[in-house]
Amino acid sequence: MSREKGNIAEAKACKYLQQEGFIIIEQNFYSRFGEIDIIASKEEVAHFIEVKSGEDYELAIQNITPSKISKLIKTANIYMKKNGYASDYVFDAVVVTPTTIELVENITL
Q: Which letter does DSSP use for residue 42 in this model?
């Protein structure tokens, strides 16, 4: 996926999350391990969110691999240490297709 398509998907994901009551804390947080697309908060829980897009749900979701989840977790740990964060948190995904946007909670389960 091109960076431009990724930016469009992330913008749609942020708008969707805000409509669902999330507060966007940061976008595109980088560490030496990888990137977190969106860091958001809802009901005092931090959500580290991977955004995936595709022509359909299955094509998008299959790109969330164990390796990608590992990088997400390592990068989130760096974010939490850097920011002194010690509250509850989860790892989620937002899947963006041409016709739908879906939040997939707790992708590490």
A: E
Residue 86 in any domain: the answer is yes
At 84, give phi and psi (nearest 5°): 60, 35
User: Is 109 within the bounds of a domain?
Assistant: no
Q: What Cα–Cα distance (Å) separates residue 13 from each residue in 37, 63, 83, 87?
A: 10, 17, 24, 24
**pLDDT tens-digit series, residues 91-104:** 999 999 999 999 99
State mean pLDDT over 38-53. 96
What's the pLDDT at 106?
94
Q: Is 78 helix (H, G, I), strand (E, B) or coil?
A: helix
Number of compact structural domains in the chain:
1
The CATH number given to whatever domain includes residue 32 is 3.40.1350.10
Helix (H) or strand (E) holding 7: helix 3-19
